[in-house]
Batch of 2 targets.
Target 1
Amino acid sequence: MERVILVRYTEIHLKGLNRPFFEAKLIENIKGALRGIHCKVHREQGRIYVTEISEDRFDEAMERLKKVFGIHSISPALGVDKDWNCVVETAFSLMEKQVAAKPDLSFKVFARRSDKNYFMNSDEINRELGHLVLEKFPTVHVDIHKPEVALSVEIREKAYIYAEEIPCANGMPVGSAGRAMLLVSGGIDSPVAGYMMAKRGLNLSAVHFYSYPYTSERARDKVVELTRLLSAYAGPIRLHLVPFTDIQMTIYDNCPDKETTVIMRRLMMEIAEKIAVNDGARALITGEALGQVASQTLESLCVTDDAVSMPVFRPLIGFDKDEIMDYSRRIGTYDTSILPYEDCCTVFVPKHPVTRPEVADIRASEEAVDFTELVEKAMEETETLIVKASDPKLI
Ligand code: ATP
Ligand code: MG
């Protein structure tokens, strides 16, 4: 008997002629996620099978697969000899666990047969096995429409039997949609924004602006850790750490106080776009939500967008803070995000920031200062890390 994992995908099935491309990406990402755990991955009839898994790391493999975008659900299955008695015994052993948890459960046998030479067809397997299960477990009953347990039997080169279907992350395989640059702060929102766009198939690069010594070493570690948590879903992430103190100080010394935040955000976007071009990224991603703070009013967002020519993706634009917090708890970044280290945006906050800035005014204030050399210097001093889920936890 062998424990295997059966992997289902749904949206990829709608892809017509491009389907092999998406399937190949998904398989590549599954192999990437399972790196370090001995196993084999292959596709067969619109499903993916993970076989020959190191027995002691089976549960870990299941956990990792739950984070791979493009997977709809997984089932831990038992692969056994096609001999009928063996099939029945295995089905009983799976039902036994389910019945122990809920004696009066409803079930249905769901057979599929790709080996057409097998001595029973699917209907016969359904009826015969259903009958035997009812005999063996008198407390259960059949519900063919909404069974609590779908006892599934697949007759292939082996028989695969399973009774559980575990929902996974869905979405599209990371890398199938190209690459974008996430502006990652230490807050709650930006990691969720990155998660959402990776879920739609984007590879992520990330950029973080820090203002040492106004922001601490710990604040930097927090961002690296958030990026590491995100990489469990998005795969390895190239993280660029940009020193921003000189630019920030120059803004505060030379621009009108109430415009400093918007101008700072424009410079962040400008630098992020330059690094994105070098990384082969075609869009920027931020964690902004409409109206959340002064720099996220419609007018402010227009002024921010005016600084760049790449599209800016803001997947959280229509979300309430509560909803974003729920999301961040679910994906596992919340506890790190709420650690209390300062972000460079919170260090110098004007008392009365503009909430309805005009592009022309902001451009004029910005043009009064020459940022060219400062931007070049910040880019030269940028440090780049490759962050992976398997890296040690930082904080
Ligand atoms: P978050 O929870 O992501 O920090 P926020 O609500 O605090 O978001 P802001 O601080 O105004 O919002 O930042 C808005 C967006 O700008 C962030 O979601 C992020 O994409 C980007 N951003 C802010 N600060 C930084 C930074 N230091 N480095 C890189 N990107 C940043
Ligand atoms: Mg922030």
Target 2
Amino acid sequence: MLSDLSFEEIKFYVKHMGLPEFRGEQIFDAIYSGKSLQEVSNLPKAIKDILCKDYPNYAIEKVYESKDGTKKYIIKYSDRNIVECVLMKYKYGYTLCVSTQVGCRMGCKFCASTLHGLARNLSAGEILGQVLLVNRDIGGSRKNRMITNIVLMGSGEPLDNFDNVTKFIDLVSASKGLNISQRNISLSTCGLVNQIYKLMEKNYNITLTISLHATTDEKRKEIMPIANKFTIDEIVKACREYYQKTKRRIYFEYTLIKSVNDSLDDVKRLAKLLKGLNCHVNVIPLNVVKERTLKGSSRLEAYKFADMLKSNGISATVRRTMGEDIAGACGQLRNQIIESTTK
Ligand code: SAH
């Protein structure tokens, strides 16, 4: 698919297809404007006929808008698979949370994305498609980019789809492409330690975010199967090396689950684990998923937890929850749609 290709690769493709060179720029512009092939007006039908099997045919299937302005998009791909992405408006611009896989195979107990397992990986161009389509939907184009920040925190485990995800980062941050600064891109992982080392080699300026959610391996194993493969100590060691190499502050996500990971002992252990690492902890009250039995701590408890972390020397804030009225947590909406269409 053409959105998998960089500008240079598109130029090569155009040459290979026997088309004049200037068509390369037009095709690239059309793709980056998020237009479907039918909507492109400056390409003759004969060229469209040549392009049609390679031109992306993903589309926005549905948009849900929350009272707080957050928008959730359902994107449909050519094989009818759907994913979600979420647009959040902040003072500085728009952040888009993208999905990296259709479903997920990590099996975290609190997460809706993994309930149906992994359907398939998304290609780099399919992940990019989410950005291009939403950018267009809010009035942007290739030259007038409206989306300023990207978080790889939608459905899927980005480091379980390493090659496509890193290619996506290359494409979306390319100056000829959307030119989104790598400093404005966050990649969130449940902690695939071997892949974190591989990511380090890329020397990106992106922010690495770790979904930690527990302070002992025993507890982590109860809620995150990946903990059977990598210990918390191994994750934190990789983070320390990641910081040494990139000088990028590490972020930790800590979803508070009632009576599971929200004790004073957890605060103390977490502070000890992260001591001396340039990091920040985002405390997130659990977004309750109806298929799951785990209960969230209250917002007040989240503030208390963050305050205690701070008094133990760790930078921490409570994450704002957005879009709760539109099934905000990743994967929730896709599950609702799958259920309603399979009934
Ligand atoms: N697989 C990656 C990225 C996708 S999940 C990862 O694990 O980081 C993005 C974030 O949402 C993770 O921190 C994940 O733990 C969190 N999350 C998933 N379900 C949640 C829920 N129901 N409530 C709160 N946070 C949730």
